[in-house]
Amino acid sequence: MNLRRDVFQAIADPTRRAILLLVASQSMTAGAIASNFDTARPTVSKHLQILTECELLDQEQTGREIYYHFNPKKIKEIADFIEPFRSMWDDRFNKLETIMKNYESKK
Amino acid sequence: MERKTKIHAEDGKQDLVITREFDLPLELLFKAYVAPDVVEQWMGTKVLKLESKKHGSWQFETSDAQGNVVFQANGVIHEFVPNQKITRTFEMEQTPFPVQLEFLEFEKLTDDTSKLTMHIVYKSVAHRDQMLQLPFAQGINMAHNRLQTILNKLK
Protein backbone atom coordinates (compact mmCIF):
# COMPACT_ATOMS: atom_id res chain seq x y z
CA MET A 1 0.00 0.00 0.00
CA ASN A 2 2.79 2.40 0.88
CA LEU A 3 3.88 3.72 -2.47
CA ARG A 4 7.23 5.31 -2.74
CA ARG A 5 6.77 9.07 -2.33
CA ASP A 6 8.86 11.80 -3.81
CA VAL A 7 8.89 15.57 -3.36
CA PHE A 8 7.31 16.16 -6.74
CA GLN A 9 4.34 14.07 -5.80
CA ALA A 10 4.17 15.92 -2.52
CA ILE A 11 3.94 19.33 -4.10
CA ALA A 12 1.56 18.30 -6.87
CA ASP A 13 -1.40 18.98 -4.60
CA PRO A 14 -2.56 22.57 -3.90
CA THR A 15 -3.52 21.85 -0.30
CA ARG A 16 -0.09 20.42 0.37
CA ARG A 17 1.53 23.47 -1.18
CA ALA A 18 -0.62 25.67 1.04
CA ILE A 19 0.43 23.62 4.07
CA LEU A 20 4.10 24.08 3.15
CA LEU A 21 3.63 27.83 2.89
CA LEU A 22 1.97 27.91 6.25
CA VAL A 23 4.54 25.81 8.07
CA ALA A 24 7.41 27.55 6.31
CA SER A 25 6.87 30.69 8.36
CA GLN A 26 6.53 28.88 11.68
CA SER A 27 6.32 25.37 13.13
CA MET A 28 2.77 24.29 13.88
CA THR A 29 0.79 21.41 15.31
CA ALA A 30 -1.51 19.34 13.09
CA GLY A 31 -4.52 20.95 14.75
CA ALA A 32 -3.27 24.47 14.08
CA ILE A 33 -2.54 23.58 10.46
CA ALA A 34 -5.97 21.98 9.99
CA SER A 35 -7.71 25.06 11.39
CA ASN A 36 -6.53 26.97 8.33
CA PHE A 37 -8.39 24.71 5.92
CA ASP A 38 -12.01 23.83 5.28
CA THR A 39 -10.84 20.31 4.45
CA ALA A 40 -11.73 17.55 6.92
CA ARG A 41 -9.13 16.94 9.61
CA PRO A 42 -8.29 13.36 8.47
CA THR A 43 -7.60 14.70 4.98
CA VAL A 44 -5.17 17.23 6.40
CA SER A 45 -3.55 14.45 8.44
CA LYS A 46 -3.08 12.44 5.27
CA HIS A 47 -1.43 15.41 3.57
CA LEU A 48 0.86 15.88 6.58
CA GLN A 49 1.78 12.22 6.43
CA ILE A 50 2.73 12.48 2.76
CA LEU A 51 4.75 15.65 3.34
CA THR A 52 6.53 13.98 6.24
CA GLU A 53 7.28 10.84 4.25
CA CYS A 54 8.85 13.02 1.58
CA GLU A 55 10.84 14.81 4.26
CA LEU A 56 9.46 18.19 3.30
CA LEU A 57 8.19 18.36 6.86
CA ASP A 58 9.88 17.09 10.02
CA GLN A 59 8.00 16.15 13.15
CA GLU A 60 9.16 17.17 16.57
CA GLN A 61 7.61 16.09 19.84
CA THR A 62 7.33 18.95 22.32
CA GLY A 63 5.62 17.76 25.49
CA ARG A 64 2.35 16.27 24.38
CA GLU A 65 2.26 18.12 21.09
CA ILE A 66 3.83 17.18 17.80
CA TYR A 67 5.07 20.17 15.86
CA TYR A 68 5.66 20.14 12.12
CA HIS A 69 8.72 21.95 10.78
CA PHE A 70 9.51 22.84 7.24
CA ASN A 71 12.65 21.14 5.90
CA PRO A 72 14.38 23.63 3.62
CA LYS A 73 17.06 21.12 2.60
CA LYS A 74 14.50 19.07 0.82
CA ILE A 75 13.10 21.94 -1.19
CA LYS A 76 16.49 22.27 -2.82
CA GLU A 77 15.55 19.18 -4.75
CA ILE A 78 12.69 21.13 -6.24
CA ALA A 79 14.30 24.37 -7.21
CA ASP A 80 17.75 25.82 -7.36
CA PHE A 81 18.76 27.43 -4.08
CA ILE A 82 18.61 31.07 -5.13
CA GLU A 83 16.46 31.05 -8.24
CA PRO A 84 13.05 31.47 -6.61
CA PHE A 85 14.34 34.40 -4.56
CA ARG A 86 15.96 35.96 -7.59
CA SER A 87 12.91 35.63 -9.75
CA MET A 88 10.71 37.10 -7.04
CA TRP A 89 12.86 40.24 -7.08
CA ASP A 90 13.09 40.17 -10.84
CA ASP A 91 9.29 40.16 -11.08
CA ARG A 92 9.01 43.02 -8.63
CA PHE A 93 11.62 45.08 -10.41
CA ASN A 94 10.07 44.40 -13.82
CA LYS A 95 6.82 45.70 -12.43
CA LEU A 96 8.55 48.74 -10.98
CA GLU A 97 10.12 49.46 -14.34
CA THR A 98 6.82 49.17 -16.20
CA ILE A 99 5.01 51.38 -13.70
CA MET A 100 7.66 54.07 -13.80
CA LYS A 101 7.80 54.06 -17.59
CA ASN A 102 4.09 54.84 -17.63
CA TYR A 103 4.59 57.34 -14.84
CA GLU A 104 7.09 59.12 -17.01
CA SER A 105 4.82 59.21 -20.07
CA LYS A 106 1.89 60.53 -18.01
CA LYS A 107 3.82 63.66 -17.12
CA MET B 1 14.86 36.02 -21.20
CA GLU B 2 17.60 38.30 -20.04
CA ARG B 3 18.39 38.09 -16.37
CA LYS B 4 18.48 41.66 -15.27
CA THR B 5 18.30 40.98 -11.56
CA LYS B 6 21.39 39.39 -10.07
CA ILE B 7 21.92 37.94 -6.63
CA HIS B 8 25.32 37.54 -5.12
CA ALA B 9 25.25 35.25 -2.10
CA GLU B 10 28.45 33.62 -0.91
CA ASP B 11 28.36 30.35 0.95
CA GLY B 12 28.60 30.67 4.69
CA LYS B 13 27.97 34.41 4.82
CA GLN B 14 25.07 36.15 6.46
CA ASP B 15 24.48 38.75 3.80
CA LEU B 16 23.70 38.98 0.12
CA VAL B 17 23.65 41.58 -2.61
CA ILE B 18 20.86 42.06 -5.14
CA THR B 19 21.66 44.22 -8.17
CA ARG B 20 19.43 45.41 -10.94
CA GLU B 21 19.84 47.77 -13.85
CA PHE B 22 16.75 49.68 -14.90
CA ASP B 23 15.74 51.34 -18.14
CA LEU B 24 14.74 54.32 -16.07
CA PRO B 25 16.37 57.60 -15.18
CA LEU B 26 17.74 57.60 -11.63
CA GLU B 27 15.06 60.04 -10.38
CA LEU B 28 12.25 57.75 -11.49
CA LEU B 29 13.85 54.69 -9.97
CA PHE B 30 14.23 56.50 -6.67
CA LYS B 31 10.67 57.78 -6.84
CA ALA B 32 9.45 54.18 -7.02
CA TYR B 33 10.86 53.76 -3.51
CA VAL B 34 9.38 56.87 -1.94
CA ALA B 35 5.97 57.44 -3.55
CA PRO B 36 3.55 55.29 -1.49
CA ASP B 37 1.09 54.73 -4.37
CA VAL B 38 3.91 53.46 -6.57
CA VAL B 39 5.39 51.24 -3.85
CA GLU B 40 1.94 49.71 -3.38
CA GLN B 41 1.78 48.78 -7.03
CA TRP B 42 5.11 47.08 -7.50
CA MET B 43 5.41 45.53 -4.06
CA GLY B 44 1.81 44.34 -4.20
CA THR B 45 1.13 45.51 -0.68
CA LYS B 46 -0.70 48.27 1.11
CA VAL B 47 1.49 51.06 2.44
CA LEU B 48 0.26 52.09 5.88
CA LYS B 49 3.18 54.37 6.54
CA LEU B 50 6.26 55.44 4.61
CA GLU B 51 8.23 58.27 6.14
CA SER B 52 11.12 58.70 3.75
CA LYS B 53 13.56 60.53 6.01
CA LYS B 54 16.17 59.85 8.67
CA HIS B 55 14.49 58.49 11.83
CA GLY B 56 11.38 57.81 9.76
CA SER B 57 9.59 54.50 9.75
CA TRP B 58 7.52 52.40 7.39
CA GLN B 59 4.74 49.86 7.63
CA PHE B 60 3.28 47.59 4.94
CA GLU B 61 0.30 45.27 5.11
CA THR B 62 -1.04 42.75 2.58
CA SER B 63 -4.53 41.28 2.65
CA ASP B 64 -5.97 38.36 0.73
CA ALA B 65 -9.10 38.54 -1.45
CA GLN B 66 -11.28 37.98 1.63
CA GLY B 67 -9.69 40.91 3.40
CA ASN B 68 -7.69 38.85 5.90
CA VAL B 69 -4.31 40.32 6.65
CA VAL B 70 -1.75 37.79 5.45
CA PHE B 71 1.46 39.76 5.68
CA GLN B 72 2.70 42.65 7.78
CA ALA B 73 6.12 44.20 7.72
CA ASN B 74 7.73 47.27 9.20
CA GLY B 75 11.03 48.96 9.76
CA VAL B 76 12.84 52.18 10.40
CA ILE B 77 14.85 54.38 8.10
CA HIS B 78 18.38 55.16 9.23
CA GLU B 79 19.73 57.03 6.26
CA PHE B 80 17.88 58.81 3.53
CA VAL B 81 19.73 60.64 0.77
CA PRO B 82 17.48 61.39 -2.23
CA ASN B 83 18.61 59.71 -5.46
CA GLN B 84 21.52 58.10 -3.63
CA LYS B 85 20.72 55.85 -0.75
CA ILE B 86 18.27 54.46 1.76
CA THR B 87 19.39 52.45 4.77
CA ARG B 88 16.55 50.74 6.56
CA THR B 89 15.49 47.74 8.60
CA PHE B 90 12.93 45.18 7.50
CA GLU B 91 10.93 43.06 9.90
CA MET B 92 8.13 40.64 9.12
CA GLU B 93 5.54 40.65 11.86
CA GLN B 94 4.20 37.46 13.39
CA THR B 95 6.94 35.31 11.96
CA PRO B 96 10.02 33.84 13.60
CA PHE B 97 12.30 35.70 11.17
CA PRO B 98 14.47 38.30 12.87
CA VAL B 99 14.79 41.84 11.60
CA GLN B 100 17.19 42.38 8.68
CA LEU B 101 19.25 45.39 7.68
CA GLU B 102 19.06 46.75 4.13
CA PHE B 103 21.45 49.13 2.38
CA LEU B 104 19.97 50.46 -0.85
CA GLU B 105 22.19 52.36 -3.24
CA PHE B 106 20.89 54.13 -6.32
CA GLU B 107 23.25 55.05 -9.14
CA LYS B 108 22.91 56.87 -12.41
CA LEU B 109 24.31 54.89 -15.35
CA THR B 110 23.21 57.08 -18.25
CA ASP B 111 20.47 59.72 -18.57
CA ASP B 112 17.96 56.94 -19.14
CA THR B 113 19.35 54.08 -17.14
CA SER B 114 20.10 53.49 -13.50
CA LYS B 115 21.24 50.81 -11.12
CA LEU B 116 20.03 49.62 -7.74
CA THR B 117 22.30 47.74 -5.34
CA MET B 118 20.56 46.23 -2.36
CA HIS B 119 22.79 44.81 0.35
CA ILE B 120 20.86 42.78 2.92
CA VAL B 121 22.39 41.66 6.21
CA TYR B 122 20.68 38.89 8.16
CA LYS B 123 21.05 37.89 11.80
CA SER B 124 22.90 34.67 10.93
CA VAL B 125 23.98 32.49 8.02
CA ALA B 126 21.11 30.14 8.82
CA HIS B 127 18.58 32.95 8.69
CA ARG B 128 19.88 34.14 5.36
CA ASP B 129 19.70 30.67 3.87
CA GLN B 130 16.21 30.23 5.20
CA MET B 131 15.09 33.43 3.52
CA LEU B 132 16.70 32.38 0.27
CA GLN B 133 14.91 29.09 0.31
CA LEU B 134 11.63 30.68 1.16
CA PRO B 135 11.08 33.57 -1.16
CA PHE B 136 7.40 33.39 -0.27
CA ALA B 137 8.26 34.36 3.28
CA GLN B 138 8.63 37.92 2.01
CA GLY B 139 5.01 38.15 0.97
CA ILE B 140 2.93 35.14 1.52
CA ASN B 141 0.28 35.64 -1.14
CA MET B 142 2.72 36.85 -3.74
CA ALA B 143 4.92 33.97 -2.85
CA HIS B 144 2.12 31.59 -3.32
CA ASN B 145 1.86 32.56 -6.97
CA ARG B 146 5.59 32.43 -7.21
CA LEU B 147 5.78 28.90 -5.89
CA GLN B 148 2.92 27.95 -8.13
CA THR B 149 4.81 29.27 -11.13
CA ILE B 150 7.96 27.46 -10.19
CA LEU B 151 6.12 24.25 -9.64
CA ASN B 152 4.21 24.56 -12.89
CA LYS B 153 7.50 24.90 -14.72
CA LEU B 154 8.61 21.60 -13.27
CA LYS B 155 5.56 19.71 -14.46
Quote the distance from N terminus to C terminus of chain B.
20 Å
Biggest sheet overview of chain A: 3 strands, antiparallel
* Low-pLDDT runs of chain B: 137-152
Give the uncertain stretches of chain A in residue-range form: none
> What is the strand arrangement across the widest sheet of chain A?
1-3-2
- Could you estimate the helical fraction of the residues of chain A in percent? 55-70%
What is the CA-atom radius of gyration of chain A, in angstroms?
18 Å
Could you describe the 3D structure shown?
The complex is a heterodimer of chains A (107) and B (155). Chain A is of the alpha+beta class and 107 residues long. Chain A contains 6 helices and 3 strands; from the N terminus they run ααβααββαα. Chain A has a 3-stranded antiparallel beta sheet with strand order 1-3-2. In chain A, a hairpin with a 2-residue loop joins strand 2 (57-62) and strand 3. Chain A is elongated, with a radius of gyration of 18 Å. The mean pLDDT of chain A is 82. Chain B has 155 residues and is an alpha+beta fold. Helix content of chain B is 26%, strand content 40%. Chain B is built from 4 helices and 8 strands. Chain B has helices at residues 26-34, 36-43, 125-133, 140-154; strands at 5-8, 15-22, 46-50, 57-63, 69-81, 85-92, 100-108, 114-121. Chain B has an 8-stranded antiparallel beta sheet with strand order 1-2-8-7-6-5-4-3, with helices on one face. In chain B, a hairpin with a 6-residue loop joins strand 1 and strand 2. In chain B, helix 1 (26-34) packs across helix 2 (36-43). The two termini of chain B are 20 Å apart. Residues 137-152 of chain B have low confidence and may be disordered.
